[in-house]
Amino acid sequence: MLGPHTNWHGAAVNRPRGNPTDAELVAAVNDAVRGGDLDRVVAGLTDLLKRHPANPVLRQRLAMALNNRGSRNARQGVLHAAETDFRAALALVADHAEAEVNLARLLAAAKRWDAALIALEQACSRFPHDIELRLDLAEAMASAGAAGAEALLDEAIAVARSTGQIDPTRLAMSLATRGRPG
């Protein structure tokens, strides 16, 4: 079915319905963002990226939307969908820091130790000053029975205590993992 639209001259142009212009897609994405509808945001950005695959801004925005939707899915307990979104974000933007860390933590929470340890080690190498991430790695290593877990946990706890860069509740949880009082 064809519908009337106008071109930039104001002349009527017929085009198939259901095939929105870029401007209409952008408007729909903006409406979805304002409405907090991450599924529509991802769908709209995906459509735009199909039309403009070399656009780095679209790639970055879609990766951010996928990471946000993955975080929502993880909070709601939809872990497979969360993992899919985090991996899709990383496929679009390989160095997407938040998606990398979120995927690592998701794998650890799911007790998929082999994959979690690899992902956490990679994240720690990219963010060596992130104390919480180092604690996550140490705790995952301890849970998986990996060698070196105690030393890494002791080191991370010492740095966390000395710098004060970590929430006291989080530090207490790490100390409990280590079997020590605060």
Topology at a glance:
Layout: E1 2-6, E2 12-16, H1 22-35, H2 38-51, H3 56-75, H4 79-92, H5 97-109, H6 113-126, H7 131-144, H8 149-163, H9 168-178
Antiparallel strand pairs: 1-2
Could you characterize what this model shows?
The chain is elongated, with a radius of gyration of 22 Å. The chain is 71% helix and 5% strand. With 182 residues, the protein is mostly helical. Residues 1-11 have low confidence and may be disordered. A two-stranded antiparallel ribbon has the order 1-2. β1 (2-6) and β2 form a beta hairpin. The protein has nine helices and two strands, in the order ββααααααααα. The longest helix is centred in the middle third of the chain and has 20 residues, at 56-75. α2 (38-51) runs antiparallel to α3 (56-75), α4 (79-92) runs antiparallel to α5 (97-109) and α7 (131-144) runs antiparallel to α8.
